[in-house]
Amino acid sequence: MSKLPPRLGQVQLQIMQALWERGEATARQITEDLSCAQPIAHSTVQTLLRQMEAKGAITHDASDRVFVFRPLFQRSEISETAARDLLTRVFQGSVYGLVAHLLRHERISPEERRRLRELIDRADAAEGERP
Questions:
Q1: Among 63, 66, 37, 36, which Cα is nearest to 49's?
Q2: For residue 109, which phi and psi values (nearest 5 degrees)?
């Protein structure tokens, strides 16, 4: 049985993004990656890395007395868990509620709307094929 991904905070997700992009990284490299968008203290990154390791989201190896971190979950696993958590906690499991909120409060390009319609049409077709 596979282990479910842990719930991660916003900055922890940014750390995971850096790790997915690099494959593995030191705390210093992650700090530099995150600081490109907005300054973050190296000590904060180190604390978050320890918390993420305790949650089982990442692991590390020591290379020349420097910790090199790597993710234990794929991006898709974390995305699925985060989306399901949002759907459950904020929208009480209502897909309609989530989509309605996005349509009312977010800018959705014509291309994205077209793709969403196609996705719904494919889901309807697949539903029609089920016994």
A1: 66
A2: -65, 155
**Residue 1: which pLDDT band, with cuts at 50, 70 and 90?**
very low
C-alpha to C-alpha distance for 57 and 8, rounded to whole angstroms: 9
Cβ distance 19 to 30 under 8 Å?
Answer: yes
Residue 24, amino acid: E
- φ, ψ of residue 63 to 5 degrees: the values are -130, 110
- Is 32:18 a contact under the CB 8 Å cutoff? no
Report the distance separating Cα 33 and Cα 14, nearest Å. Answer: 9
Here the tokens at position 130 are 């089920």
Residues 29-41: what's their mean pLDDT? Answer: 94
Domain range list for the chain: 10-71, 94-131
Contact 78, 13 (CB under 8 A): yes
Q: Which CATH number fits domain 10-71: 1.10.1740.10, 3.40.50.150, 1.10.10.10, 3.90.1520.10?
A: 1.10.10.10
Q: Which two tokens stand for residue 127?
A: 């539903």
Q: What is the pTM of this model?
A: 0.77
